[in-house]
Amino acid sequence: MKYRTFRIGGVHPAEQKLAKDAAIEQFPIPAKVAISMAQHLGAPATPVVEKGDKVKVGQVIGTPTGFVSGFVHSSVSGTVTAVEPRADLAGNMVMHVCIDVEGDEYADGIVTSDRIERDIKGSPEILLEKIKKAGVVGMGGATFPTHIKLAPPKDKKAEYLIINAAECEPYVTADDRLMREHPHEIVLGARIMARVLGVEMVVIAVEENKPEAFDALSDATLRYVGIDVVKMKKKYPQGGEKQLIDAITHRRVPSGGLPIETGCVVQNVATSYAVYQAVQKDKPLIERVMTVTGECLPEQKNYLVRIGTPISAILDSVGGLPMESAKVISGGPMMGKAVANLEATTQKGSSCLLVLTPEQTARTPETVCIRCGRCTQACPMGLEPWLMNRLGRNGDYAALEENKIYDCIECGCCQSTCPAHIPLLDIVRTSKAEVMKIIRSRAKK
Amino acid sequence: MAKLIVSPSPHFQNKTTTQVLMNDVLIALAPATLVSLLFYGWNALLLLLVCVATCVGCEFLIEKYLRGREIPCISATVVTGVLLALNLPPAAPWWVAFVGSLAAIGIAKMCFGGLGQNIFNPAIFGRVFLLVSFPVAMTSWAAPQGWLPIDAFSGATPLAQINEGIRQGIPADQIIAENGLSGWHAFFGAAGGSAGEVSALALIIGFVYLLVRRVIKPYIPVAILCTVVVMTTIFWLVDPGKYTGPVFNLLSGGLLLGAIFMATDYVTSPMTTIGMIIYGVLIGLLTVLIRYFGSYPEGVSFAILIANATVPLLNKYCKPKRFAA
Fold first, then answer.
1. Domain check: are A278 and A384 in the same one?
2. Is B323 in contact with A91 (Cβ distance < 8 A)?
3. Alpha carbon of A418: minimum distance to chain B alpha carbons (Å)
4. Chain A closest CA to B47's CA: distance in Å?
């Protein structure tokens, strides 16, 4: 059988799913947590607790600021020791609520049992409100607030709900384990979102390298009509929203357009799990599955980690940072962010903690472009990275705009395949920022 | 604690470097080079060594003393040297190889800015430079004795024999029959001509290796060969006495060598699939036209050189298929 996949470009990095056989373990609650107010795309939340306040697990500690924003909840019970700017995973200074942990007392109304609640009660509006109040965001890494994606503009009609279970990044296994161990919750979460959107067709897209997850989900969907589990070819960046829509429906998100214009809403599989918890258990997003992996680590883990746990605590649990480590990455090796500060804490979008050695990650010297065309063949957006490298270095922003630099999804296919080791994506990112500035200033006029 | 690196994504780099790719091209050229040495012996080896040494030396001196840097990719330079050697008549004097190498690297490559910047394929440029400068040396096909205990081929190349014969009014099929030039003998290695043209099989082995290692895409060679087959079949069906047939054209002369190793040079070929196909078809057309109607018996070198000049245009107008309209 020929599996589905997107139709332009893509690469096949070694999958390195080292942690795929490690069952999900509850990570011990740390003594202190620091919870970022900027865990979603958009405006950071406004803290609503002060130093000295007592908080419980699941209590709101940040409320949305503006439309594209979200709720933030305490992941532990204890005393607020500070509300202050701190460096987050990406190195940005953002407001954090720091809490000293005392016990593990949940806020009222949160159900903590593992019993699977199949009965979905409530109107779409009520369900949507619950999802919003629970602070659910896209957990694949982009952290776009889920309630906004589930409420498309009135003139746009969603036809498909696509559950993104591609997990195409090498090393990351968090979604794989979640699907294998909690398939029923994921399917129910998808059904809840389908009801909110009013769509008839739900597609759960799993890459072929996760056969156990595929089987588990297939079993879990047997009793329902309108939910398909689809096996996808293994190819990066399959989990890119635009690529996944193309693979499933052969529709293409237009340049500068939103996915809803193709009638599709894409949600990550971990988001689906969080939606289930939010609606059926009234449990806000306070923890997530996170892979801890790397060849140089003695153990490969998939932890259920409370949001706000320091990176250092997680690394200590696998024997600390090895001497030969060169880079700690939050996320996968293709799109993840290098961590500058090990005291930074986990967030809603932190799917993986990857430790790489110098041999694996050190940048090698750049040589000259020999116009081999590999970057162009690899680009899933059909762009010409070699040309952007040349135009970008010359500062020819008009030509870059003409060549659709703003379509770049920053997947890194070009740079990782370049035999001359040219930092193509660095150049594209900086040039893209300039081009976007020009486009915005023109729009203002 | 060790210092941590912080840099933007991607954090993973493919281990294939330019050097690795060019080494693969050298490995792919090995069968054809070995066969040429077996057939043409010491003089072919001398030409090979002179070409490689001159190319590397010339690039080294220019990079070092005019730009103050090392040769960026030495294997690419060696590839140029080997290709030029394979494009010389096996009996050519050593100074022809020397001058050709200087022209290839000094003019075609370094004048344009070195690796990655040249418009014309250096080896092809070197060959054409020699062809127009030293026509006698470049078309003397008296072959030296090789390392195999068989008679050396001498006299003109099959293409030249036919070209000459047709000019005298002898039908092409008659010349082929009389001289045993069926074309198939060229498959295993029994054709007069440039050193690298001696065995089609050796070239095809190299082609398969390049495809398996994903060094090149098949589009350019396939487009060239298909165009030549289609064109020659049409002409041959119209008048087999005047025009040679497809099998003969496919297997004789520098067509395979050019299509597989010269036209696919990264720097001087287009980036996109559609660009590659147009480029290949153009080379195929020009090759057949020059072979049939030109005054030179062999047309591949000129065809590639002319097509090289269209590559910037092809890159400009043959954009990849964009994801979003």
1. no
2. no
3. 7
4. 27
Q: Which two tokens stand for residue B184?
A: 């198939």
Domain final residue pick, A362, A397, A426: A362
Distance CA A215, CA A220 (A): 9
For A255, name the nearest residue in chain B, comparing CA atoms only: B324
At B183 the pLDDT is 54
Number of domains in chain A: 2
Q: Identify all chain A residues contacting B1, using CB atoms and an 8 Å cutoff.
A: 321
The domain in which residue A392 lies consists of: 374-444
Same domain flag for A328 and A427: no
Which member of B114, B271, B323 has the closest CB to residue A381? Answer: B323
Residues A220 and A181 in one domain: yes
Is the pLDDT confidence value at B301 over 60?
yes
pLDDT digits (tens, 9 = 90+) for A133-160: 999 999 988 899 999 999 999 888 899 9
Q: In the prediction, which pLDDT does B179 show?
A: 62
Domain boundaries, chain B: 19-138, 159-317
- Considering just the CA atoms, what is the radius of gyration of chain A in Å? 21
- Both A321 and A206 in one domain: the answer is yes
Cut 0.80: pTM above it: yes
Q: Do A325 and A409 reside in the same domain of the chain?
A: no
Q: CB atoms < 10 A from the CB of A359, how many?
A: 10
Q: Are A109 and A282 in contact (CB under 8 A)?
A: yes
Structure tokens at B54: 């001159």
Its ipTM equals 0.87
pLDDT of residue B189: 54
Tokens of A146: 């889920």
Q: How does residue A295 score in pLDDT terms, banded at 50, 70 and 90?
A: very high
